[in-house]
Amino acid sequence: MHDIQASDSGPCAEAHTPYACGCPRTAELDGNGSAAASRRRFLHGAGLLGAGAGAVGLGLLGAVPAQAADAKASGDPKASGDPQGTAAKTAKGRGRWQPDPDSRQFTLVVMPDTQYLFDEDRIHPAPLEASVRYVLDGGVNREGGQDDNIVFLAHLGDVTEHGLPVEYAAVTKVFGLLDDAGAAYGVLAGNHDVRSSTDDQRGSTPYLETFSQARAARTAGYRGSSPDGYNTCHVFRAAGRDWLLLSLDWRLSDAGFAWANAVIAANPKLPVILTTHEMAYADDGGKAELSDYGKQLWDRLVSGNDQIFLTVNGHYWPPGRTVLTNKAGHDVHVHITNYQDRYYGGAAMIRAYRFDLDRNTVDVSTFSPWIQEIAADERNALAAQEAELTSDVDRFSIPIDFERRFAGFAPVPKRPARRASGLLVRDTLAYWRFDNGGGDGTAVSDRQTVKDLTGLGNDLVRQSAPGAPDQALRWSTDYHPDQPGHGSLRFDSQGSAQLGAYLQTVPNAPMNRETFERGYTVEAFFKLPADWDSARSRWSAVLSRWGMSSEAGKSGPSTDPDEPVVTLSLSEGPGLQWCVYPLNQTGASTCWGHQLPLDRWWHVAVVNDGRLNRMYVDGCEVARNPATPAVGLTTLGRPWMLGGYAYAGSLNKVFHGYLGDVRIVKRALAVREFMIA
Q1: pLDDT band at residue 553, thresholds of 50, 70 and 90?
Q2: Residue 336: helix, strand or coil by DSSP?
Q3: What average pLDDT score do residues 164-193 get?
Q4: Which helix or strand (DSSP H or E) is residue 384 part of?
Q5: pLDDT at 513 > cutoff 70
Q6: By the 8 A CB rule, do 232 and 222 touch?
Q7: Which residue has better confidence, 352 or 142?
Q8: Comparing C-alpha atoms, which of 378, 374, 356, 375 is closest to residue 365?
Q9: CA-closest candidate to residue 229, choices 245, 247, 241, 242
Q10: Mean pLDDT value of segment 95-114
Q11: DSSP states of 215-227 as a string?
Q12: For every residue of 391-449, which 3-state class applies, written as one string?
C-alpha cells in the first residue's frame, strides 16, 4: 500500500483521504533495490509513538517473530514468525485443482495486501500458506465449513513490503503450492511491489520475475497477458458458463487500458470481474467512493463495458463498498478490502465471494484461515478477534439477478415453444394452452372456444359474472419460461364475482364425470401480479369443480358443506391449497403450499398415485401433504372452472392474474414428466 519511494520529509506522492495512506513509508528504494528503513517513521505511520512505543510489540500478544535466518537455524515455529505453529502443515487438498464447473454455487476468493508478512528479514509465510491450503482444500477446512467450490484466487497486490528479491523468494514458495495443484489464480502488482511512480510499462522488476507471463500461462484458465506482462486475463468455468477475471496493474498506461478494453471486446458475452490494487477508498462508515485513479478506471474501462459487474481492490483501509451505475444503466458493485492494519499484518485474511445462482445472491465473508486452523481455546486474545470479521462491510450479501444483469450482453436463449402433441402423454385427459387465441391484450369473446388439445372434447368456454366487462378476460403473450405454450390468459379481477370472467368446461365434457380412481396429475402455470390483494382475492381458484360437498353427501369433521368438491385455491398468503373430497373419505383431503412471492411465474402440480395426494411447486414437493389415503375425486357430473370458484352453489370469486398451460392426466406422473421438465 502507498508509495515505497516517498522520502521521510516529502509529502505523499498521491493525494489521499484519511486512512487512505496508512503507509509507514519506512523505506526508499535506491538504484540497487535495497531499502533504508526508518523505525521512527514506521511508528508514526502506525500510530504507535506517543503511546508507549518502546513497549509495543508482538511479544505482548503471545508472539515474538524473529529474523528469518535465526528461525531457519532454530527450527522453532514460534521463532520463525509462526506463533501458532502451522507452518509445517500441508494442503490436504484433492490432488489436482478440480472445482465443479457446473454447480450453481461457487466461490471466488480474493486476498488483499500481505506486505507486512514479507518485509525484508521479517518473513512470516505461515498465514499465507494457510490461506492457500484453504483454497486448495475448497474451503472444507474452515470452522463448520463445507466444500465451497472455490474456482479462483485473486491477490489484490502489495504482495510484499518493498518488492525485494528476498521477499519474493519466500512468497514464490507459497504460491508454488498453487502451481503444483494446477490452480487458477492471479497476482497483480501493488505500489509496494513496484515503483509507484511507474505504470505497467516500467520494465523488469523482481515482481515480474516472480510472477512472470510464463508462470501465469501455466495457471488454470489463463487466456493472456498484456505485452508488458503486468496485466493478466483468466477465464474460469462456473455455474455452467464462462466468467472473465482481469488482474490489472497498480497503474495502467494507455497501452494497458487499450489491452483491457480489447480483452473484453474479444469476449463479448462473458461477465467480467475486475481486480486491481487501487480503485476506491472508504470512510469509517464503510461508504466507498472512487479515488482519483479509480475515476480514470471508471471512465476509461468500467463504465463503458457493461460486462463488468464487480470490482474489488485493496490498497486502502478501512474496507467499504458502494454501487455505481454504468453507461448502460446497470449496477456495478465496487468493493475495497484490506486488513494489513489489523493484527499480524492482517493474517493473510481472505474474502470469499460465494455465488449462488439459484438464489441470485452473492454471500460475502471475511476470515483468516490461519487463525481458524487454531483451536479456539488456543488462540491468543487478538487472534480470537480476527478469526472472522462480521461488520456490514466484511460479511454481507449482494442480490444480483444474474440473468437480468447479464441480459444486455449474454441473453439467455428462450426455451422454444413445444408442440402440443409432445405434451399428450399417455392417459392425458385434458390439455389447454393459450398461445393461439388472439392478439396480446385482446378480449376472450363469448363466442370463442378454447379447445382441449387431446381431442377428447373437454373444451372451455367463457363465462362472465353479470356486468363483467369484455376486458375482464384477455389473451396475453406473457408466460412461464419453461412453459410449452408461449401464451396465457389474463384474468382481470380483484375477487369481485360481479366483475370477473372465467372459463368453464362444456356441459358434455367427459372430464365432468371423471372420478380418477387410479390416480391423477393436475398441472398449471400461473402468475399473481404485483397488485394482487389478499383481502379481495384470497380463496379464489386456479381450477375448481362445481358441486358442494354437502350435495355429495360429505359430512366428516373437516367438511365445509358449502365448499366445492374439488378446488386448487389461493389462501391469503398467498399460498396454494388443494382441497378435495376423495371417494374413500367423508371429509376433505388438503395439501397446503407455502407463501408465494408476487409478480413471478410458478408451476404447480398435484399428484395422486391412487393412494396419496402430493403437491409440488416448481417441481419441489411441499411439506404439508397429508398422510391419510385419498382415493379419487368426488363428482356430481358438473363442469370444471378455470379461474372461477363457487361457494354455496354460486360463483364467489374469480381469479386475478395469469394462467398458462393446464394439463390433467389420469395417472401419477413423476417430476421428470412435468411440463417444466
Answers
A1: very high
A2: strand
A3: 97
A4: helix 381-386
A5: yes
A6: yes
A7: 352
A8: 356
A9: 247
A10: 93
A11: HHTTSTTEEEE-T
A12: CCCCCEEEECCHHHHCCCCCCCCCCCCCCHHHHCCCCEEEEECCCCCCCCCCECCCCCE
Q: What whole-number distance in Å separates Cα of residue 577 and Cα of residue 594? A: 9
Q: Where are the alpha helices (DSSP H) in 137-275?
A: 165-181, 206-210, 213-216, 254-266
* Residue whose C-alpha cell is 481492490: 313
CATH superfamily of 39-82+105-405: Metallo-dependent phosphatases (3.60.21.10)
Q: How much is the pLDDT for 466?
A: 86
The 3-class secondary structure across 349-373, one letter per residue, is: CEEEEEEECCCCEEEEEEECHHHHC
pLDDT at 1: 52
Task: Specify the CATH architecture of the domain 426-673.
Answer: Sandwich (2.60)
Q: Are the CB atoms for 288 and 278 separated by under 8 Å?
A: no
Residue type, 312: V
**Residue 526 and residue 656 in contact, taking contact as beta carbons nearer than 8 Å:** no
- Mean pLDDT of all residues in 278-294: 97
Angle at 655 between CA 653 and CA 656, to 5 degrees: 120
Residue 177: strand, helix, or coil:
helix
Helices and strands (H and E) in the chain: how many: 12, 36
Name the 3-class secondary structure at 536.
helix
> Quick one: pLDDT at residue 348?
97
**Residue-range domain boundaries for the chain:** 39-82+105-405, 426-673
* pLDDT at residue number 140: 61
Asked if 493 contacts 645 with a C-beta cutoff of 8 angstroms, the reply is no
Nearest residue to 475 (alpha-carbon basis) of 436, 502, 440: 440
User: Which three-class secondary structure string do you get for 630-656?
Assistant: CCCCCCCCCCEEECEEEECCEEEEECC
Averaged pLDDT for residues 354-372: 97
Task: Record the pTM.
Answer: 0.80
Cell of 121: 528479514
What's phi and psi for 262, nearest 5 deg? Answer: -70, -35
Residue at grid coordinates 489489523: 342
Chain segment 124-147, per-residue pLDDT in tens: 999 999 999 999 998 764 444 457
Rounded to 5 degrees, φ, ψ at 485 are -95, 135
* Cβ atoms of residues 36 and 30 within 8 Å: yes
Determine the length of the chain.
677
Distance CA 420, CA 484 (A): 8
Question: Does the structure show a pLDDT above 70 at 21?
Answer: no
* Alpha helices, DSSP H, located in 252-340: 254-266, 292-297
Band (pLDDT 50/70/90 cuts) for residue 467 is confident
* C-alpha to C-alpha distances, 28 to 6, 33, 41, 160, 316, nearest whole angstrom: 6, 9, 12, 14, 20
Distance CA 473, CA 486 (A): 17
SS3 per residue for 132-152: HHHHHCCCCCCCCCCCCCEEE
DSSP 301: I
Dist CA 475 CA 658 (whole Å): 9
Written as one letter, the residue type at 184 is A
Q: What is the pLDDT averaged over residues 298-314?
A: 98
According to DSSP, the residues that pair with 344 across neighbouring strands are none
Q: Is the peptide bond before 574 cis (omega within 30 degrees of 0)?
A: yes
The CA distance from 2 to 248, in Å, is 16
* DSSP designation for 572: S
Distance from chain centroid for Cα 346: 27
SS3 476: strand
